[in-house]
Design goal:
- It is a single chain.
- This protein is α+β, with helices and mostly antiparallel strands.
- It is 42% helix and 20% strand.
- Strands 2-1-3-4 form a four-stranded antiparallel sheet, with helices on both faces.
- β1 and β2 form a beta hairpin.
- The longest helix has 12 residues.
- The termini are far apart.
Length: 128
Amino acid sequence: MYYTYMLICRGGSIYTGYTADLQRRIREHSGESAQGAKYTRSHPPERLAAAWQTAEKASACRLEYYIKQLTKKQKLRLIADGDLSAFGEKINAGDYSPADISQINAALHVKDSPLGCSAVNDILCCRD
């Protein structure tokens, strides 16, 4: 199983990546080892905002690529609704299923919700 994931980092930035072991990768990003991405060393993750699982590594990489092409507003909307159908024919949305992020966020000592619904709505309405 492979995962494509989105982290909310310090300062409100969004980091997107893929991995075969989501819990291990989040621990690495959180500073438990030197294996975390250079970006998350200077922008530590605050919470795992969203994650999708798929059977194929190529599918996880493809989703990561298309998420990285989105604007911040579009990424926040994706976090809020999790709807991959907006990518149209670029990906086969049926290849992906939402991953349970509550256990991982519990390990990071954060709330299940990536952002409160009102916070997401405020960002979507007020920022580009």
